[in-house]
Amino acid sequence: MSLTSAKPLRTAIVGTGNIARQHAESLQRLTEETGGVELVAAADTDPDRLAGFTSEFSIAGYADTHALLAAEHVDLVHICTPPGAHTSVALAVLEAGGHVVLEKPATLTLAEFDRLAEAEGATGRYVATVSQHRFGSGVQRLRGLLESGAAGRPLLALCDTTWYRDQAYFDVEWRGRWDTEGGGPTMGHGIHQMDTVLSVLGPWTSVSAVARRQARVTDTEDVSLAHVAFENGAVASVVNSVVSPREESYLRFDFEYATVEVRHLYGYTDTDWTVTAAPGYEEQVKAAWTAGPADVRSEHLAQFRAIAAALHEGEAPPVTTTDARRTLQLVAGVYASAFGRTPIAPADLGPGSPHYALMQGDGPVW
Q: I need a labelling partner for 285 at 20 to 30 A (CA). Which of 17, 133, 172, 176 fits?
């Protein structure tokens, strides 16, 4: 079905803070491109913030989610609240018959996420999690390179999210708290890069990690480091920091016959990527890399295009709950390993684990 010939998905946004503006602008661009979506309303408990947002985007405003759902028929709701409110809002939307797009982190815990997955199955509606870096042409080329076999087996990956957030950032009431954010940079910042690595290398099998509170006055960590092993035999080093004055998001994948790297901060373009072939493999690596798509930025718009297209076809949108859970489970594994001082496998993070219902489990003891 062509989006231009389909009835627009009536779309709303809950939570009108900074990230909501990116959602709204992307949705409006998608409307201009295809007409496949229509942003009709927003909700926020802060009346002044809501008024400014609804005026800017010429949409209806409501004081909370329930008021919005009672007044509007919506097909899709983008949830941009602080993470602690994600689950309750998403459940209300699903029960009202709408699909959900969740900002990261999707939920504060694995237990909450499984409640959403259960509700998704019971209602027949879909939950997608924002993972915009999966949709840029660079990562699509990288996956194509792997699938073609031209670069050989994946051997080693580096995944560094070294960002900077000062103390004032954590002094905001809901930040730096396990009960409202679910964790520090591992959960709220590096999760985007970790998700990208998982989208390329697939399921993980074990993690060994440390987490520290190096510089910020916060309940959570401000630095974590992890070693991650994957089913395909690859291993990865993962660093998450919010105490690094020179900020960078860096991914490196070493295959048998090529190294692929990207350096960016909050989103990449094709020019941010570097491909280095091993001697003798230059032509086959170049051919496989250039065969992929081009000129797609890793931004919300790219994922929203894919979500709208899937929903119009009656299909599950990317990124599915299975995909998103694997990433959230790795975050839980980092905390479980760091605070338990032991390697962790996915099977260790079931309902019997203290890290299933609380990311921090019984820790930390700083």
A: 133
Q: Is the Cα dihedral 142, 146, 151, 155 positive or negative?
A: positive
SS3 category, 104: coil
pTM of this prediction?
A: 0.96
Whether the CB-CB separation of 221 and 190 falls below 8 Å is answered with: no
Task: Per residue of the chain (366 residues), give pLDDT as tens.
Answer: 455 557 999 999 999 999 999 999 999 999 999 999 999 999 999 999 999 999 999 999 999 999 999 999 999 999 999 999 999 999 999 999 999 999 999 999 999 999 999 999 999 999 999 999 999 999 999 999 999 999 999 999 999 999 999 999 999 999 999 999 999 999 999 999 999 999 999 999 999 999 999 999 999 999 999 999 999 999 999 999 999 999 999 999 999 999 999 999 999 999 999 999 999 999 999 999 999 999 999 999 999 999 999 999 999 999 999 999 999 999 999 999 999 999 999 999 999 999 999 999 999 988
Least Cα distance to 146 among 8, 285, 24, 30 occurs for: 285
